[in-house]
Amino acid sequence: MDSDVSDTPSTEDETHAMTEDGTQATTVGETDTRATTGLIMCGGEGSRLRPAVGDTEKPLVTVGGEPMIDRVVAALQASSLTTIAAAVSPATPATAAHLAEIEGVALIETAGSGYVADLSDALAGLDSPTVTVAADLPLLTAAHIDRAVTAAGNDSLTVCVPASLSEELGLSAEPTVDHDGTPVVPTGLNIVGDAGERTAVWRAPRLAANINRPADYRVVAAWLDGDTQTKF
Predict the structure, then answer these.
(1) Residue 199 has what DSSP assignment?
(2) Which of 63, 71, 112, 209 has a CA that sits 20 to 30 A from residue 217's CA?
(3) How far apart are CA 27 and CA 17, in angstroms?
(4) Cβ(53)–Cβ(61) below 8 Å
(5) Distance of alpha carbon 86 from alpha carbon 151, whole angstroms
(6) Residue 43 pLDDT > 90
(7) What percent of the chain has pLDDT over 90?
(8) What residue ranges do the domains of the chain occupy?
(9) CATH match for 34-224 among 3.90.550.10, 2.130.10.10, 3.40.50.980, 3.40.50.150
(10) Which DSSP symbol is given to 211?
(11) CA angle 106, 126, 196 (to 5 degrees)
């Protein structure tokens, strides 16, 4: 597996764009195989977050005055991707209705059988490689997406952050996996490709802001409202 923890570009002739959290996005020539399709996974029940948000479907939870799903859609639309789809399920009918009103987002109905099964069903009708994004990443940026697309090429890529970063920010570090002896947390930003499988580890605070639990919601909402010194 490959690990990228330095934000150092791989070649001198790439074009660099800084994300707001200091990570770099790179662009490559149009002849390289790379993802052009983005898939938002938004069919989960979001039960862990309910103590903070009640019965509101997780993608529709508002942070900084906007539903999380709208922030994710905006990041995808501002990226290099040309096709955007969203996987919904019987657990998220209000999210499906909301997304149906957004131009340029194709809805994919899944059975709600679980993340892996729903992901497999949704990917079956999309071009590969495909960017997959969780609906609960409200601080995701286009630069994060384009950086992952470039890094992956035709491979599958799992983007992680160090578990220590999540802990520093007061966010839940879960699930935690081992990568070259270091605990890391998958961010919910991935590429599903046709070749190898790799892992990228970025010290990217905004990607660490995956809202799974009430504490995550409070930290991110406070930052967007300007009520905290936490730096994303």
Answers:
(1) E
(2) 112
(3) 9
(4) yes
(5) 23
(6) no
(7) 70
(8) 34-224
(9) 3.90.550.10
(10) -
(11) 140
Q: Confidence class of residue 32 from pLDDT cuts 50, 70 and 90?
A: low
Per-residue burial over 81-118, b = 16 or more CB atoms within 10 Å of its CB, e = otherwise: bebbbbbbbebbeebbebbeeeeebeebebebeeeeeb
- DSSP class per residue in 12-55: TTSEEEE-TTS-EEEE--TTS----EEEEE-----GGGHHHHTT
Please say if the pLDDT value at position 134 is more than 50. yes
Amino acid at 57: E
CB distance 157 to 177 below 8 Å: no
53 — pLDDT class (breaks 50, 70, 90)? confident
What pTM, to 2 d.p., does this model score?
0.85
Q: Are 220 and 139 in contact (CB under 8 A)?
A: yes
The count of other CB atoms within 10 Å of the CB of residue 22 is 12
Q: What is the mean pLDDT of residues 89-116?
A: 94
131 and 77 in contact (C-beta within 8 Å)?
A: no
